[in-house]
Design brief:
Number of helices of chain A: 14
Order of helices and strands of chain A: HHEHHHEHEHEEEHEHEEEHHHEEHEEEH
CATH class of the largest domain in chain A: Alpha Beta
Distance between the termini of chain A: 53 Å
Strand order of the largest sheet of chain A: 2-10-9-8-7-3-4
Number of domains of chain A: 2
Radius of gyration of chain A: 21 Å
CATH superfamily of the largest domain in chain A: Type I PLP-dependent aspartate aminotransferase-like (Major domain)
Oligomer: homodimer
CATH topology of the largest domain in chain A: Aspartate Aminotransferase, domain 2
Strand content of chain A: 5-15%
CATH architecture of the largest domain in chain A: 3-Layer(aba) Sandwich
Largest interface: A-B, 84 and 83 residues
Chain lengths: 409, 409
Amino acid sequence: MMSQFAERMTTMEKSAAIIRKLFGAMNDPDLISFGGGAPAKEALPIDIVREITNEVMRIDKRGVEALQYGSVMGLQDLREVVVNELLSPKGVDAKVDNLLITSGGLEAMNLLCQLYIDPGDVILVESPTFVHCVEIFEMFQAKCISVDMDDNGMVTEDLEAKIIKYRPKIVYVIPTFQNPTGRTLSLDRRKKIAELGSQYDVIILEDDPYRDIRYSGRELQPIKAFDETGHTVLANSFSKIFSPGSRLGYVLASDEVTAKLFDAKTATNSHTSMLPQVICAEFFKRGYYPDHHKMICDLYRERRDTMIECIDRFFPEGTKRTFPDGGLFTWAQLPGGINTTELLVESTTNPDVKVAYVAGEGFFIEGGGMGNNCMRISFGGVSPEKIRIGAEKLGNLICSKLRLRQKAL
Amino acid sequence: MMSQFAERMTTMEKSAAIIRKLFGAMNDPDLISFGGGAPAKEALPIDIVREITNEVMRIDKRGVEALQYGSVMGLQDLREVVVNELLSPKGVDAKVDNLLITSGGLEAMNLLCQLYIDPGDVILVESPTFVHCVEIFEMFQAKCISVDMDDNGMVTEDLEAKIIKYRPKIVYVIPTFQNPTGRTLSLDRRKKIAELGSQYDVIILEDDPYRDIRYSGRELQPIKAFDETGHTVLANSFSKIFSPGSRLGYVLASDEVTAKLFDAKTATNSHTSMLPQVICAEFFKRGYYPDHHKMICDLYRERRDTMIECIDRFFPEGTKRTFPDGGLFTWAQLPGGINTTELLVESTTNPDVKVAYVAGEGFFIEGGGMGNNCMRISFGGVSPEKIRIGAEKLGNLICSKLRLRQKAL
């Protein structure tokens, strides 16, 4: 009856359905949700935003700038803040001219696909990887192929073999406190991946939204710090350190890539919303960031420690989990063939449990049930008290399932 | 040396270059600019935004909502505001469920292309049309074909003939105070275009960002009001009635199209920035809009009247110009073969003139010098005093050029 949709709407249908299923229906207020990846509401700088707005939203200050059309590349002083306060201290030598402000971190992935992906082009991703980005890649009709991961992140030997075999346009990596596993790519591999990009003329798309909330362990330089040829593109987000609802992110690229990003951004939404940009720039320039950063790191560290302690205590023997030095979640692999997709139905609807997580399967593009014994467990948005209650209930449910299975065998 | 860009980056290169040329370098503060399409800075609700933020950015009010992740479709109460205050009074019977909030009005065009455009698909556009959208269409590798316009907008006979001939996926129309001409599509043609969409199974993409700033003449129902089959998709923007820098717009579509828009929006930037959405919703709900609307209509009416009066007085005999009943610009066609692209160099650099406008040529996808005697003249962002000075200088320059040409003949 109606006009035919474009091809891309079909290729993305599977991942879109996974996302709607994974992340929908998690807003039941009775539920203790380890599902979403949202920051804690206590980590949102509500009062600071009000104070800043009250100061600068005046005709003789930044009022016009905040409400009038802005530049495609983003607000100049926000870009300076990123270069001077977020990149330079991490060992990334960036120029403001090479930095574009995006409408949230994810937009960088969309823009990079606009730049590079013709239908059928290959993108290499981690196994498991962030399903939201797979949806973007599939909308652009890319063929996603997975690269092995271990506790130190993407396995570079497998990456090189697959670069040679599949000639990808893009390698998509989340190097720090990876989504969904919480794993961090080792320093040697960071160097190696930057080199592989240069050597084989492949774009390394480094998506690093969690790196700025490290609360234990040693800081590692981004892959971009080792890029000598402009093949690595660094994407990051203000979602975890400022506010996700503001939809602010940035992308750092070479001169050539930046010129194309300018065109793609223009043809996507002209520029990123100005009011959040002005407020975020002032958040840094007025010196609010260091204290806020310390506060959220303390908050998340306590929640991680509580979650890890509870998993170790209440989950069955043989459970494997990661120990993230930052970020918002851990990843657990259950023993005894328990299917986490099936378990989720019971854990969210059984009135004695009412605990949500994200089932692991959806993060594996390989399909075929891979990862169906895994779960992503977010602790960022849940109070330590509720973490204790929820993890105990979830752990008990898993243990009871396991006993039933063992009895049946 | 570097990875090859996707095909789409080549197809959009021409229009991208036009945009960079047309709209760049217009920020010289010594210039009187009739170039940009930005609202007047006096029309920006700076104090209102501060007051609202001060009220609602509190933990026990809307603070969390404004900074936390939001829903893909947009803020519920902003969508209700649109339906009840902006669509229903205009004769559009809309459901909140069919309305998605976009990151600026342009994003709707990008999303619709994601839904419908495979490389080589045809989009019919007005002649002249908004070059910014042509850039989007070309990024999606659509083939744009122009449809004749007259003083009543797109000529429906030519439209029908071209629908039959080219089997387009989308017909792109700016019905009210069109960009760049300021023309308004007549009521009969609005009905006819909705019918043609249904009859030939073509999406009518109605882009109507100026309709809410009508300050003379009779209100006309949108094309969408006459759509009985869901083939018309209505896009609009808050840029002209609230703030362009906030990047807020909306798109109203059928159930089937809305479901796909949900997926495309998710894969573009997850959702629109929340803080501007919260503030904009409160701007309406607290009743600020009617007075603000009256203020900006009075402001623009005076500027239009001044501009029209000055063009009639200072531009040479034989100049044709439109008389827009709303919006931010008029369109002039100069006599005597004066090339407005060439003239722009002199008008912006000659220290005795220093007046900018947008040369007409770039708005015609036909190329070949079409429209090179036309100019888009924006009055929205310029004070009446400066309109008088600028239009007199520009008129004098045109008259002097004309005399030189006539002498030479």
